[in-house]
Design goal:
This protein has one domain: TIM Barrel. Helix 6 links the parallel strand 5 and strand 6. The protein has an eight-stranded parallel β-barrel with strand order 1-2-3-4-5-6-7-8, surrounded by six helices. By secondary structure, it is α/β, with parallel strands linked by helices. The mean pLDDT is 98. It is built from nine helices and eight strands. The termini are close together.
């Protein structure tokens, strides 16, 4: 049985609302320290935050549409790296994915990977709810080939929806433990979080981390 503390160490405590303020980001960081989460994940313009000891700093890139030029994504990632982030979650170009241009998808992930030193974790958001099973597999393979460290289900902003157990299982099967799998988008209760972990998620993106963790005991 997963304990509260164990699950907390898998959580990116997240605040990516466009209207989020610096004060709210500071509160997020404080909560992360109290909850014992792995990191906070905030927008690139809000990286100037005091972090509790042991809490990592993550941000997003090409968020939330993924429709930015590869050079713009790479520049954004490089700027975040210079600001001291530990992890970057980038969004793929879904337009390329939907026409099967996997070389193009891989090339833009590789461009962001080049902008991130090896000690910076790169997660690739594939927006799984907007993809077919075959496209999910291909996106995961492109991410791995480009040097990503994780594949991630969702931004949480796409109308197609967020994470699903089925998508997480397929992603985990495809990367075979060589990459991490982050489930994110619409995970609001303990049962759903645990189901994602059981399906193969090794990281969770949560905005309501406290509510999820309250369903577990140490």
């Amino acid at each position: 049985m997963t304990t509260r503390a164990e699950l907390a160490t898998m959580i990116d405590h997240t605040l990516l609302k466009p209207e989020a303020t610096a004060e709210q980001v500071a509160e997020l960081a404080r909560e992360a320290g109290e909850l014992g989460t792995f990191s906070i994940c905030v927008s690139p313009s809000q990286l100037d935050v005091d972090l509790p000891e042991g809490v990592k700093l993550a941000t997003v890139c090409g968020f939330p549409s993924g429709a930015h030029a590869a050079a713009v994504k790479a520049a954004e990632a490089a700027d975040s790296v210079a600001a001291g982030v530990d992890e970057v979650d980038m969004v793929i170009n879904l337009g390329l994915a939907k026409v099967g241009d996997w070389d193009g998808v891989q090339a833009e992930i590789a461009a962001v990977r080049e902008a991130c030193p090896s000690n910076v974790v790169l997660k690739v958001i594939i927006e799984s709810a907007a993809l077919t099973d075959d496209e999910i597999v291909a996106a995961c393979k492109a991410s791995e080939a480009a040097g990503a460290d994780f594949v991630k289900t969702s931004t949480g902003f796409h109308p197609a929806g967020g994470a699903s157990v089925e998508a997480v299982r397929l992603m985990a099967d495809t990367v075979g433990g060589r990459l991490g799998v982050k489930a994110s988008g619409g995970i609001r209760d303990t049962a759903t979080a645990l189901a994602m972990v059981q399906a193969g998620a090794t990281r969770l993106g949560l905005s309501g981390s406290g509510a999820v963790l309250d369903g577990l005991s140490d």
